[in-house]
Design goal:
The protein contains three helices and eleven strands, in the order H-E-H-E-E-H-E-E-E-E-E-E-E-E. The protein is of the alpha+beta class and 199 residues long. The chain has a single domain (12-53, 62-132, 149-177), classed as Sandwich (Jelly Rolls). It has a seven-stranded antiparallel β-sheet with strand order 1-9-6-11-4-3-2. Mean pLDDT is 91; it is low at 1-5. Keywords: Dioxygenase, Iron, Metal-binding, Oxidoreductase, Vitamin C. Its cofactor is L-ascorbate.
């Protein structure tokens, strides 16, 4: 994995400790305002390329209704976020021996009325997703707009996590979670840290 060129101003020790205890961690004010604003602009400029999300083999499922765009190096700012996650992966590998080898990610847009029902990102260890992350890249959010991430932690306690702008939620991919129906356009980068080499 490559080293991120974008500074990663995150408290890695806190992330590791929270993942160890609860299975998830929240990073607030993940990046500086200049980068965050530019990334928001990059996402909005690609909206015409978003497509309805599929679950597997291109099959559209009724359990989700969001729209996505997979990220590659042509989305240069989003790719820098992936590089930062790759950098974080090195620390997670050292702490938990996860064997993370790469990161896959897409932009996600939840329009008004869209949701993602209760699920796991790695059900019954059927894929190579180890750690999931959601980076909220809309500029503002209000609690009344919905769109929360409802997540069950390692201790079987439920949390309602607000999609606060410029924050990142990192969690074990086998944890149950859902996205509550959104009442405004909700933008994010969803990424998975994987322990295989094939995307």
């Amino acid at each position: 994995m490559t080293t991120a060129s974008l500074p990663m101003p995150w408290d890695v020790d806190q992330i590791v400790n929270q993942l160890d205890e609860f299975g998830f961690s929240i990073i607030k004010q993940a990046y500086d305002d200049v980068f965050f604003t530019a990334l928001n602009t990059e996402c909005l400029s690609k909206m015409d390329k978003f497509r309805a999300a599929a679950i597997q083999d291109g099959v559209i499922s009724k359990i989700r209704s969001d729209h996505i765009l997979w990220i590659n190096e042509t989305q240069s700012l989003a790719h820098k976020h992936i590089l930062a996650l790759e950098n974080l992966s090195q620390s997670l590998n050292q702490a938990f021996f996860l064997g993370i080898k790469n990161v896959e990610a897409h932009f996600a847009c939840y329009n008004v009325g869209e949701f993602y029902a209760l699920h796991r990102d790695n059900p019954q260890q059927k894929n190579h997703r180890v750690i999931s992350s959601v980076f909220y890249i809309h500029k503002t959010w209000q609690e009344s707009w919905g769109g929360q991430l409802r997540l069950q932690d390692k201790k079987m306690n439920w949390h309602m996590i607000e999609p606060t702008a410029n924050s990142i939620v990192i969690f074990e991919s086998n944890l149950l979670h859902e996205v509550i129906t959104s009442k405004q356009k909700r933008l994010s980068i969803t990424a998975w840290l994987r322990n295989d080499l094939t995307l």
